[in-house]
Amino acid sequence: MDFPKFLLGDNTDYPDAIFVIHTEYPRFIINLENDDVEWLEDFDQNDEKELATQAEDLITQASEFYDREVSRYDE
User: Fold this and answer.
1) DSSP letter string, 45-74
2) What pLDDT is attached to residue 18?
3) CA atoms within 13 A on the CB side of 64
């Protein structure tokens, strides 16, 4: 089974948080309320260089995913 690239996460302990989970490498959870990112991978120096170029794009994609999902709820 293939999993979606992004998932929405909810937790009643964080009622104002908007969590988006990125399920592909590099896996991360972002809280769109404050843009806190928790990376779920261990990176070495080479990975960090590549990640620096990918991170902004992935975070933008996560935000776009959330906006798309919310717009579908409104329909």
Assistant:
1) HHHHHHHHHHHHHHHHHHHHHHHHHHHHHH
2) 96
3) 7
Q: State the Cα angle at 29 between 31 and 44, rounded to 5°.
A: 130
Q: Which of 15, 47, 42 is nearest to 31 (CA)?
A: 15
- What's the pLDDT score for residue 9? 96
**CA 70 – CA 6 distance, rounded (Å):** 13
**What size, in residues, is the chain?**
75
Q: pTM higher than 0.85, yes or no?
A: yes
The sheet with strand 28-31 has its strands ordered as 6-9, 19-22, 28-31, 36-39
Type of residue found at 12: T
| Average pLDDT value for residue range 47-65 | 88
